[in-house]
Specification:
Blueprint (H helix, E strand, L loop, with lengths): L1 H14 L6 E6 L4 E7 L7 H4 L19 H12 L3 E7 L3 E9 L9
Antiparallel strand pairs: 1-2, 2-4, 3-4
């Protein structure tokens, strides 16, 4: 996930748009925490926003993107850790990912 942010920051060096990815963690309750990562980059096009977590979806094929980073992140957050991940973006205004995680991950080996 943070490699995705790093790629976005690296792209800024080429495009000249100032971008900064900032992780912010806050306690939602005794049972959950939230991690927020946002930037002020170019944002995600509306026609792509619903597909960003799909395996092999990329707008960067041929430029280092495999389309697996956010898909793997989604799987880890939602299936392995029992959390939720969402994305909001507006072209020209940046992108925000909200991750809500239980303070204790589910026991995947419990019967």
């Amino acid at each position: 996930f943070f490699f995705q942010a790093e790629d976005g920051i690296r792209d800024v060096a080429v495009t000249g748009v100032q971008t900064c990815a900032l992780p912010i963690s806050e306690k939602l309750s005794e049972d959950y925490v939230q991690l927020v990562v946002h930037d002020n980059g170019v944002g995600i096009a509306p026609e792509h926003i619903q597909r960003v977590f799909d395996p092999f979806f990329s707008t960067r094929f041929g430029r280092g993107g495999s389309g697996l980073g956010l898909s793997i992140t989604h799987s880890l957050v939602e299936r392995t850790l029992g959390g939720k991940i969402s994305v909001r973006s507006e072209p020209g205004q940046g992108t925000r990912f909200d991750i809500i995680l239980p303070r204790l991950a589910p026991d995947l080996h419990a019967s």
